[in-house]
Each structure stands twice: as C-alpha cells, then as structure tokens.
Amino acid sequence: MKKSISLRGFSAYRLWSQLPRIEVSRLPDVVMFGAALALFYGVLIVGRSWFGPFTPTVEISRNVRALPVYAGYSLLRITIAYGLSLIFTLVYGYVAAYNARAERFMIPLLDVLQSIPVLSFLPPVTLAMVGLFPGRQLGVECAAILLIFTGQVWNMTFSFYASLKSIPSEMREAAAIYRFSWWQRFIQMELPFSAIGLVWNSMMSVAGGWFALMVCEMFVLGDRDFRLPGLGSYLQTAASAGDTSSIIWGVATMILVIVLLDQFVWRPVIAWAEKFKFEQVESTSAPQSWVYNILQHSHGLARLRAKTLQPLGENLLLLFARKREKNVPQAPVPWRDWLVRLIGVAVLVAIGYTVVRVTMILSGLQRAELHEAALGLGATFLRVNLALLIGTLWTVPAGVAIGFNPRLARIAQPLAQIAASVPATALLPIILLVLIRLGGGLGLAAIVVLLLGTQWYVLFNVIAGAMAIPTDLKECCEVFGLRGFERWKKLILPGIFPYLVTGLVTASGGAWNVSIVAEYFRFKGQIYTTTGLGATISQATDRGNYDLLLAATMMMAATVVTINRLVWRKLYGLAETRFRLEA
Amino acid sequence: MSTEPIIEARAIEKSYPQPDGSTRIQVVGLMDFSIETGKIIALLGASGCGKSTLLRILSGLSQPTSGALFWHGKPLNGQTPNVAIVFQSFALFPWLTVLENVEAPLEARGIEAVERRKRALRTLDTVGLDGFETAYPKELSGGMKQRVGFARALVVEPEVLFMDEPFSALDVLTAENLRGELLELWLSKKMPTSAIFIVTHNIEEAVMLADRIVVLGRNPARIRSDINVRLLHPRDRKSPRFIELVDYIYKVMTEPDVEHAPPDAESTGEVVLPAGGLKRREPPVRSAKYQVLPHARVAGIAGLLELLHDRGGREDLFRLSEDLVMDVEDLLPILEACQLLGFAWLKEGDVQVSKAGAEFAEADIQTRKVLFRKAALENVTILKQIDSVLKRKSDHAIEEDFFRDILDEHFSEEEVQRQFDTAMNWGRYAEIFDYDRESGRLVQSEAAASEAARAETAISQNHSPTSTPDA
Lengths: 583, 471
Fold this sequence. Notes:
- Chain A is mostly helical.
- In chain A, 78% of the residues lie in helices and 3% in strands.
- Chain A has helices at 4-7, 14-18, 27-50, 67-98, 100-114, 118-132, 137-165, 169-177, 182-216, 231-241, 244-273, 290-297, 299-307, 309-326, 334-363, 367-404, 406-421, 424-438, 442-468, 471-479, 484-518, 533-543, 546-577, and strands at 218-221, 224-227, 520-523, 526-529.
- Chain B folds into 3 domains: 7-281, Rossmann fold (3-Layer(aba) Sandwich); 298-362, Winged helix-like DNA-binding domain superfamily/Winged helix DNA-binding domain (Arc Repressor Mutant, subunit A, Orthogonal Bundle); 380-459, Arc Repressor Mutant, subunit A (Orthogonal Bundle).
C-alpha cells in the first residue's frame, strides 16, 4: 500500500520510480517487437545446426567473436532442460502427493536420484540418445540437455511435492465444497500455493544447470569424443590449450549472461511471484524489478494477453467445470485396477532384473579397482568435510556481521549473489592457473573449488539467520552484559543454527557433486588428477569403464544418502524443535 | 413446524483406525441428525468434541464410517449437494482478488463470465463489500475477510449454509457486528439459503442466533441435549429469559449427568432431549474407559481457585465466565481439572471450592506443589501409573513412548499429544518426575526420589536402598 513504499528496502532500481511514468510511452512495445524478431532469428539458426548431419569433431573456436553464439546455444540448452524439469516436477510431484501408495516409493527414490552426480548419468544417457538419433547432431544435443535436466530437476520436484503437502486443509475443503474441477484446483490453488517455492528452486536449478554445462558440452566417452558448441566447451577448450585470455573472456561472458538472466528473468519473476505469498498481512518490503514494471505497463502485451491467454484460460476453466458437473461419480473400472497392478508387477520385475545384473557386474570388478574406489571415497569424504569446515569458519562470522549490519547487507548481498551464481567449474581453470604458478597441485585446487561451489549456500543462510534474530534478544544480551564469546554461545550460534544446518545440508550435497569435476581436470594438454571418488568416476567415464563407474556412483549415492539420514536429518530435527525461534 | 428435512443423516458414525491398525478410535458416536428448512441450527460443544467432524459429514465433505446421508429424502452417495461452508480461518485464496474469490465457485459450476460477474457483484453488495472488488484478501481486516467468506458462500445460493466457528478468529466487537448483520440478512430473507448450520463453542452466540441448539458431548461426539429456542427476535442479552436459557445450557454442558430444571418451554426454549434423560434411555456408549485429562494448565487451575476463593468459594458459572470474558470452551477444561483433582465441584450451575481447593489457594508456592502432588497422585490415573513405574524401576527413568503407547490405545493421534502434554505439565509441576524433551525420557524428580527413599528406609531397615538419591 501507499505507506509501504517509503519503507521498502534498498533496490538498485529505485531510481526508476523517480523517472517519468512509462505508462504513456510506446517504448515497451518497441522492445517487445524487437524481442520477438530476435527470437525468430534464434530459432532459425538453431534449427539449421541441430538438424544438420552429425559432425563427430566439431571444432570449438577460441575466437572471442564466437562467444555470443556459444552463449546462446548454452542458454538454449539450459532453457529446454529447465522446461523439461518443470514438466517432470509437476507430474511427479502431483502423483507423489496424491497417491499414497506411489508416494511411499517415489519420495525415497527421489532422495537417491538426487544424490547421484550428474556425470554418472552421462554414459547411459549419451549412448541412448546417440542411438536414438543416429547420424544427427540432435542425439548429442538431447544427451546434453538430458544431463543438464538431471542436474536441475530433483530439488524442484521436492519443493513442489512439499508445497502440495502443506496446503492448509480448510483451503482444500473450500475447493472441494465449491466443486472445483481438477483443472481449477490446479490453476487457482495448487500452482499458486507452490509458486514461490518453485521460483526459488528454479533459480537454484538453473544455477546448477550452468555447473552441469561445463561437464556435458564436451566429454570423452571411451574412445569417442563428443563436442557441442557452447560456453562450456569453449571454456574447456581454452583450458586445454592453456589460453588465459580466452578463459577470462569466457568466464566474463558467463557472468554477463548470468547477470542478464538475473535482471531479465529472475527479478521479474520474483517480483511477480510476490502475489502468491501465503500471508495474512501485507509485507512492507516487496521485491522490485524494473523489467517487471515495463512488462506490466506494455500496452501491446496487455492486449495480447486479453486476446489470447484470458479467453484460453476462461475456456479451459469452463470446459473442465462442465465436464466435472456432468460427471456423476462412477464405480471404479476394474480393468484400470488390473492395468495398474500389471504395470506395478512389470516395474518390480525390471527392478529385480537390474539388481541381479548390477550384482553380477559388481562381482566382476577387480579387487584393485574397488580398493582404489574405497580409498577415493575416504579422500573425497575428507576433502568435502574440510571444505565445509573452512566454508563454515569464514562464512559464519562474515554472515553474522553482514546480517547484523543492514547497511553492510545492502552492499554485500547483491555482490555475494553474483559471486555465488558463477559455477565453480568455470573458475577451475583460473584457479589451477594461479595455483600451479604458486606451486600447488590439484589436491589443493580441488578443495578451493569445493569451497567456491558450496560456501555460498552457507553464507546466504547465515545472513538470513542473523537477520532473523529478534532485536529484543540482542538487547537482552546487552542488558546482561553478554559480550564476545558468551554472546556467541548464548545468542548467535543457537539463533543461526537452523539456518546454518539448512545451508550445510545443501552445501554438503553440492560438494559431493562438485568433487567429480574438481578432482580430475584436463589442462594445458595434460590431465590433472588426485585421489578421490570424483576422480574415479571421471576416469571411469573417460576410459569407458562402465562397471567401475557404476560401482563408484553407487558408493557415492549411498554415502550421500547415509550422511543425510544419519547426520543432517538429526540436526534438522534439532533445529526444528530446540533451536526454533518461536513468536 | 414439521417439514421434510433438507439433509438427514441416519445412523451415522465416524471412527479412525489407529496407526497400528488394531483398534479404531470413534470420533462421532452413532447418531441421527437432520437439518430442517427455515431454521438456524447451532451445534455447541467443547473443543475437540467432534463438532467440526460432524459438520464435515453433514456437508458431504467427508464420508461417515457407517450410516447414510439423505438429501431431500434421496440417498447421497459421493456427489456434493448444493451447500456452502464459511470457515473459521476464512480459507480465501490470497492470490485472487475479492471478486475473483467470490467468482471462483461460479467458475466451478461452468457459468459464463458475464453472468458470473453480475452475480458476484450482487452478492458482494449484499454483504457490504462494494468498493473492495479489486482488493486482495491480505489488504483486508479480519472482519472484511470473513465478509468475503460469506459472499463466496452465498454466491452459489446454497440450500444449507454451513458455518464452522465463523466468528472465532475475530475480535469481540467485529464478531458482534457480523453476527448482527448475518441475523438481519436471515430474518429479512435477503439470504438465498433455506437453513443455516453453525458450529460454535460460544453459548451466547448460539442463544442469540439459533432456532435450535444441539449440545454435543465428547469422546465420542454424541448428542447430549436438543433444544428448540422459542425466544423472539430481536433477542436481548440482558433479558431474564435469555439468561435463563444460557444458564441452562451452561449446566447441561458442565454437569451432563445431572438433571436440571428446564427453562420455560413456551416462551424460552423447549427441551426436546434433556441432558439427564439421555442416560436412562440408552446405555453409555463405551464403558470402562481411560480417564480423559481436561486440557488445562496448572497456572489456569491455580488462578481460578484463587479467584473463587477470593469471592468466598462459590460463584455462578455464567457470571464467572462473563466477568472473566472467557468462552465456556476456555473455562470448561479448567473447571473439569479442578473437579478431577478434587479442588472444586459443580452444583446447579454454581462452582464450589472444596476444602483441599481452599487450602491450595491459600498456600505458598512450595506447599502448593505438595498439595498438587497429593491430589494428582490420588486422582489422576496416568500420573499414578508414571509414579509407580518410576518407583519400581532401578534407574528411576523411562521412555515417554511407554506412556504414549498406553494413551494410543484410547485416543486419537492428536488427542494423545494433548493428553500427554497435559500430563507432562501437571507431573512436572507436581515434581513427580522430570521430563527431558531431547531424549524423550521421564526421570523421577529429586523430591519424589528422596521421599520414596525415606519411605523405603523407614519400612524396611534391613534392606539397603537400591540407589541413593543425589543430594
């Protein structure tokens, strides 16, 4: 409302509100028109490339002028993968939330799937896709997109499922008593209710997409070499050649794309999603986006919406409503039951067969390989936890300092956000460059990369936690003269604990995934590697040793799931009960 | 007025299976219920007695475990009848504007946009919301939100309007205002509904609005009393007849086992089913039940006893609740707890503090604990059990789950938690045990332990005590 404008927090775009009103201007429409033209041209270019014949060795140019096109290709892959993730999320989450029997299997399965590193999906997905579209570039493209998909989808699905499960019962009852059709319930209740969670998780997922990009645009699979034009392959090629200026150009382009994406996609979406906040009272500071303001004021867009989207939505709503009104509840059809049972049995048989095959493969593995993988597991375990420890040690004081000081937060938070959105994998070449010059090896570089990949989650959460500590508690500490160590022990650490745990859970999962890239890297024509499970997985992929890949992946997934169950879930429980700041 | 009921429930009953699957907990006991045309029916009962469950069965939202629902005499299987519900939490969609919220039920019925808009605006006008069409619910106050809730319910022209404690989430003045407007709409026939069914725990609200009041008992929900209200509108809260009826219902709710003098049938209210009469006609629904702890905290019990003691030890219940501005829902558990502990008893709508109660009210903090422990160990089954188990065990400690399992066999999942919480509150205050939430263990508290040890050494000089209590 009116008075809240002055209360709104800092926003770089506040100046926009000082500018003359844009409602009367035609500028937004011109921009829209330009955007449509650009889109059309893009589709043309991509079509030509994708449906062209398969060129086994695409030359990746290191020319700076190739960068915009490469960035475009990479962005497109991420976008398509994201679209697929969204569809998967909606279907999987919906079924899991409403079918109690399916839920029991689907949620643990999701837990395991999300702990499998992206790279482990690489061989099966690639081989399947290339086999599906032989002789076309499309096969490799599909493989890359699917791999990015596996890096994006799981947290979104979890979020959607959790949202569906937490819709208040009275709201559900309102939908039932007012006879909402399936579609209306979805559009007016379920989707809006889960919107905010989905948006934030989408942001995280797309960031994860950039990470996966580095791996799956260019890889060696046994004796075959797959390459796709894109930012990831550009950076890899530059790194292999040791071309410092190209690496810097590449990273700069990536950062630029990420910042643009933030401004033109995420900020507007977050500003728009604000209306789906499930709150009883209006909050004083709403997120702002200048792009969103322009879009809202575009006449052309408004007219377009009135002509297309609104009638479409209306018709769909009425269609489903009338169908539902006519529908008298009918007895369940027996053949459908049998079909479900049949599918269930088929799935069980397939699982059984896979288990048998896997045991056969694993028993065929050499003892030395397993020994190496086990050793690697230990090394990676130490490395991951060391990175978490270092990350926590610096982010906690820094985060608390930022959180307690609003002025500092205004400056530091946007900077940290940009820093966090740059995938650690893209920075790896630069780090290696520096470390090798200083005389360190990959062993050290791996920890730095893990740190870069994971510390941000912790930092953001600590900042949020420090901000959430109530002022009266802080004042209470002052009154009782609690200072220094005592203040940390009595107030700050317990206060940020739930947030810290949340950050660490995400960071820990992410760190295991990053280890694959961090422990094995091609640089200046030679392979840098260090002992670790991630290195084992990368190596197995490179050499086409799928049996070892399978074993190592299972080890990693099992470790991550076990750690989650044994450590994080317990800490989470503690955070939920003992360290919760209740109003 | 004998007309055909709109909704008739015959021999309905609702129960849930326990998590372990062995037993079922009955929430709504076997009963018949009908909603007749032209009446406001109020369903009264203490919290957690199954009022809301009954509302959900009658509105077709949830299926009874057994029995059947008839809609104008025809069996209703599966389809939703033309009813609407006004919810306690409003249950509006925060991302839709006021107008969109009201239009949503019409969209669900496949009504065209123009007609929809027309009807929605008309209804918003009726409930006094014109000018707020484009506002979002979060911009509105609680009272305005509930108006949107009313509009959304009325827009479908429901035959029966169900209301689930519609005024509970509002402040006293707003609630009074809305109640008055609801009554006015109903009496002037501006409402497109044939009957209203309102669930409430506020006796005055029920007497103010209803043509028929049904009092529900709990564990499981069963009809305790059924009263046809004969008071004329507008009803005056201060009139003796109004007070007489409120008083009567108070007595029925607090002392269900005693027969009370009914109010004047012609002018005030005709008691169709008197509270006392129930017992003779049908046997108790279940016998040999586990003791139910009323959900009252020690602080509330102590506060009430002090107050009563100050006022000479005896007070009229209705006056008490008025003076305290407490709903019967909040007051009842405290009264029950006082009775259970032997600190007070009820008689003809009055509450009388017992000797033990007076002693408690006068005592200092430490003595109170001793008195409370004595009363609790004499009267409260679960605390007795905990105490004896702790005394018998060599380490004087036990997992909380042991007692949760006992409660599990008698109560529903939520009720187990509430029973447990109450028992913990009482037991810790009485220093019967310490409860460590982290580990989920009950440990005999030092006070109880030293007492036990003393008793042990006094009785058997020969035996050495199994463990020495910490100093």
